[in-house]
Structure formats: C-alpha cells, structure tokens
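Subject: Interface between my chains keeps coming out wrong

I've been trying for a while to get a sensible model of this assembly. When I model each chain on its own everything looks fine, but I need the whole thing in one frame so I can look at the contacts. Pasting all components below, labels as-is. Any help appreciated, I'm running out of ideas.
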Amino acid sequence: MESSAHSPVLAPAPSSRLAAGLGWRRRGVNTAMTVLIVGAFALAMIPLFSLIFEVAKRGIPGLSVEFFTEDARGVVGGGGAAHAIMGTLVITGVATVISVPIGIMAAIYLNEYGGDSRLRKALTFFVDVMTGIPSIVAGLFAYALFELFFGPGIRLGVMGSVALSLLMVPIVIRSAEEVLKIVPNHLREAAYALGTPKWKTIVKVVLPTAFAGLVTGVMIAIARIVGETAPLLVTTGVIDSMNTDPFNGRMQNLAVYAYNEYRSPGVMNQAAYDHAWAAALTLIAIVLLLNVAARLVYRRYKTEIR
Amino acid sequence: MASVDTTTNAGQLLAAASGGRRRRGDRVFSRMAVVSAVTILALLAGVAIFLLAEGAPALTASASELPGGESFVDYVAPLAFGTMLAAVFAAVVAVPLAVAAALFITHVAPPRIALTLGYLVDMLAAIPSIIYALWGVFVLGPAAVPVMEWLEGHLGFIPLFAGPASVTGRTMFVAGLVLAVMILPIVSAVAREAFALTPRRLQEGAQALGATRWEMIRMTVLPFGRSSIISGAMLGLGRALGETMAVTIILSVSGAVTFNLIGQANPSTIAANIALNFPESSGLAINALIATGLVLFAITLVTNMGARAIIARQDRE
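Reply #2:
Try treating it as a single job with all components included. I did that and got this:
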C-alpha cells in the first residue's frame, strides 16, 4: 500500500520525552480533525433544516382550500394551483407510464438475457451517460423531436413527459437491475428444473420476488422527476387554466407554477410569492411522502430471501 | 391439493418437452427485452441527433443573422465561461464538505445513528431544484450580503472577491453556494461507499500500531477512497454544470466575463440562458439556444465519462 510510505507514526520514537511531545501533538491534531469533520457535517446540514423550516414558514400562509380547488384563469393575485396540481399528476403519470415498462424490460435484459454481449456492455455504459444528461438538455431534445412533426413553438403536456422519461429511465433501470441481481439463482434453477420456460420463470418467479424493490425504485424515480422545472419550461409552456389532456395544449406542473409566480408576480407581489411558497411546500410534501412510502413499501413487502 | 400441483407441473414439463408454445413465449419475451435495450440506445443517439439537427442552422448561420449580431462562438463563449465558473466554485466548496460528511457517517458518528444521518444527506438530493432556487434568492442571498461585504473588505485583493459587493445577494457567490449544497449528496454518496469498503485489516492494523482515529483515516481510509473522491467530485461537477433553476432565479446576469464572484454583473450560464430566453424566442434564436444546449451536453458528457473512467479503472484494480 502506498499509504505506508508516509507514516511517521510507525517509526519508533527516539526518546520518551519526544514521544510524549508527539503524543500531545497527535492527540491535538486528532481532536482538531474530529471537530472539523463534525463541524463540516453540521454545516452541510444547516441548509437542509433552514430550507425545510423556511418552506414551511412561508408556504403555510399561501395554503387554502382555494389553492387546491381553483385554477388561476383571469384572476389577479388570487386563484389557486389546481391546474398545476393536475398538470403535475398528468405529466408525471405519463412519464411513469413511458419509463417504467421500458426501464424494467431493459433491466431484465441486462440481468437475465444480456450475458456478456456487446449490447449489454453498451447499454450499461450509456445508462451511466444518461444519468448525467442535464435536465434542460432533456427538455431541448423533446422540443426538437416534436418540432419536427408539429412545427416551431409547439407546447404539449406529453412533450414534458417525454423529457422527464429521459431523466427517469436510467433511474428505473439502475434500481431495477440492483434488485433483480439479488434474486438468488437457485429460485431460477428450481423453476427451470420443473420445466418452466425462461420467460415464465422471469414473470412468475423473478419479478414477484423482486416486487417490493421494483416498486420502491419506481417511487424514488417518480420523486426525482416530480419537481423538475427546467425541461418543462421549454416543452409544456405556461397556462392559467385547467387542462387534463396531455396531447392537446399547454400544461404546467407545480414547479413551473412556482417559478412563474416568482418570475411574473404581477401587481400583487406578496400574493404571488405566497403562491410560489405554497407550491414549494406542496412539492416538498409530495417528494418526502414518496420517499417515506418507498421505504415503508420495501420494509413491509420485501420477500425474505434465504 | 398436492396431486393437482403435480399434474400441472407434469403438464408444464410435457409442454416444455414438446417445444411449441414455450419457445414462442421465450422468443417474444426476450425480443421485448432486447427491443427495450435498443430503444434506450436509440433514444440517447436521438438526443445527440435531434440537438445537432436543430442546432445546425445556428452553427452555420452568419453573425449578422444570429440574435445579438455576433457569431455563435462569441455568443456561447461567455456562457460557457459562466457555466464553468459556477460549477467549479460549487465543486470547490462542496467536495471538502462532502468528504467530511462521508467520513463523519462512516467513521466518526456512532454506527447506530449512521444510517439515519445518511438518509439526511440523501434528502438533500431529493429536494426539487426550484425549491433550492427560491431558498437561495429569498433566504441565503440576503443572509450572504454581509459575508460578501466582509470578503470584499478583507480579501478584496483576490480577484474572486474584488467587489464592489452586491447588496441584493443575487451573485455568482450565492448561486455557487446553492449549487454546492445541491451536489453535496452525490459527492458524499460516492465517497461514503468507498470509505465504507476500506478493508478492515488496514484500519485495524493502523490502530494496532497506535494510530489515532485521524491518523487511521489519513493513512488508510483516504488513500483507499482517493479515486472515488475524484470521480465523485467530477460527477458533482457534471451535475453543477447542467443545473438550471438555481442559477436562473438567483443570478442577476449581465453577460460580463469576470472572475468576480460577489459583484452585481455576473456571467450567465448556458442552462440558465436557455431557461430565461427560450420561452420568448422564435426562429433562429431557438436554433442558437439549442446549439448552446448541445455544447452543454458535450461538456457534461466529457466530465461524466471522465468520472466513469476513473471508477471503472478503480474497479479493475
């Protein structure tokens, strides 16, 4: 190990007096570094607690029944975010419907069929690449794709879903691959020994065993994309009224809603800022609930593997 | 009951032996899996192709046709500079904190609470970027104003803190700090994984020779995790390069090319520039923005592939 190259501690102390001095210094350095490490961790946690505290404090005044039930068509300063909540559900839902089957099938390919093929290696490598795509670039891709068919300036809910899918697919594949990997081989072998075809083994044995892990992974992936803003700014546009059709007209999610309330507050500054914070609070609640629920699902339904 | 089961299994065995349905089911299913895999590769190729196709008009257009009347290179260069400046500053702040947080969780904190502390750090990654952006502009920005004034007064001889300090807090300094918080969990997660894998015999060996905890960390854990720290830092850098909302909302941009982190005039970043201008653009301006997106894609791709290469090399060792 190269670590042994610089190890003054290993050298025998020439005299007891020097050793005592070294001991004092070494203890001091140890204490100082421990304090530094603990301090750095505490420092890193300050933003988390400040952020949650501020979002709760500033978000609560904006919450009302109206916020969840009304849209904002033609109202100045008032109105609600029901259209944005619906937009969040539709855009995220469509993205999930696109990403989950393809992501899980790709993970099945990687784990059950890929073997040592070049396709498997290429897919593993490019899934890593995909996790690093900036979200705004995913949005530009969706725009460029749809512009070819629908002409410039096109804005649709489903465009946002396509952009989000690009961000969601690698997360689904990664987590699904992890849980498929830990399904023990003897389960597959037992099924084969009974003459079960491979596809049926996967559908009836492997997937049910991995089910809790798969659901958890999907929930985490949804939590990761539900609050995306940037890719939707260039794909789904801005709208004040309720729209539930992803294939027709503009749509916006809560994050874009918060951005617009901040960006163009209009004449009633404070009301718009209250809306932005209320949307932020709703989003944080959704994300945290998804994360907690994911862990609960995993703990409650995971198959004991012996 | 048992007899029924046996017959079904026997039936399956017969069906299997006779081939027929079983082989077709297998063929269909494995083909579905292969098609999914190929679709994902095609999707990624599609990203590059569509961005190239839509960005090309701006790449080939003459300077007079482009918005602002400057060539594409002149247009994208200050943005690329701002992108790098924000991301590098964020990484410089985040990496030491992330490494320390990882050390705290794996080697300093009581093992009983380490898992919970890990969740706390991971929660930083779960918070949507728009919320970081709002927090940055309403909370951290105003709080940072006195800090920036102090930096100008005491460290003003360093070009980074030349000032005059902004009174609004909408500076590169604040945007970079928010980016640092956002990338901290990913850097920390990569480092944590490596630190936790440090062979016990090395750690125990160091302690048996009388090393203090810090000496044990310095001599075994840090050298063992060194390449993970580097790759984690590069992954974090890649994340910061493409992060949009925090910069879009926090930074007051002017297009200036300056290293001054605390002033009023700040260079924009590629991602923020797209988010700010795309909704109101049309024609060639859209193509120009997409072309800048392509540049951003290329920069993050190189950064991430570098990080992956380091991880792959380490896995081989």
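Reply #3:
Confirming on my end. Residues 2-61 of chain A form one domain.
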